[in-house]
Design brief:
The chain is α/β, with parallel strands linked by helices and about 190 residues long. The chain has helices at about 10-15, 25-35, 45-55, 100-110, 125-135, 140-150, 155-165, 175-185, and strands spanning about 15-20, 40-45, 65-70, 85-90, 110-120. Helix 2 links the parallel strand 1 (about 15-20) and strand 2. The longest helix has 12 residues, at about 125-135. The two termini are about 25 Å apart.
Length: about 190
């Protein structure tokens, strides 16, 4: 994705200390390290994802540059001005603490540090469909719906995506508000 956008990932990540904010199973964390980061600290509140990430890290030659930690993005357990880059891919809109996350990212970033932020926005017809689907499964227990998807033979990636869309909380913000929050937090 970065290369298609004209960004050299090695130049962007090489020798940097990076936080993968909401790392899940560590997919991006490992990529950041593979492209030369000095250290990547993956934070998440999902123990299963962190356990998976730690097991996967054992399989790569750069495992010593990967550090997976339990922690909330609303109160990141790192010192001020301690990292070069914060990578947040599709996470903060799930926290119900959007602005607090941005404040924490700003706090832990070194002066001149960089933030990669991807958030879900408004999707027009997609959003209307998603809102309608969320209402339709509101009374269906999460575990039961997940079991149903497994029984249909969906792959784990598709199941993760569907559960994320239908059951995870979302805090929608228009682009102008996101830009304003980013300016407010430097």
């Amino acid at each position: 994705r970065l290369e298609k956008s004209g960004v050299d990932p090695v130049a962007l990540f090489k020798d940097k200390v990076i936080v993968d904010a909401g790392c899940g199973g560590g997919e991006f964390t490992t990529v950041l390290a593979r492209f030369g980061a000095a250290k990547v600290i993956g934070f998440d509140i999902g123990e299963k994802g962190l356990d998976f990430a730690r097991k996967q890290a054992e399989k790569v030659s750069y495992k010593d540059r990967l550090d997976y930690r339990y922690g909330s993005l609303l109160n990141i357990p790192l010192g001020d001005n301690s990292v070069d880059l914060v990578w947040s891919n599709g996470v903060i809109h799930h926290t119900l603490g959007y602005e607090k996350c941005l404040a924490e990212f700003s706090r832990i970033l070194k002066v001149g540090g960089e933030l990669f932020l991807y958030v879900n926005g408004r999707f027009g017809l997609w959003e209307l469909l998603l809102d309608t689907l969320r209402l339709s499964v509101e009374s269906v227990p999460r575990d039961l719906f997940q079991h149903f998807l497994v029984s249909l033979g969906f792959n784990t990636g598709r199941i993760y995506w569907m559960m994320d869309c239908l059951y995870a909380s979302y805090e929608w913000k228009p682009r102008t508000e996101v830009e304003s929050l980013l300016r407010r937090h430097g």
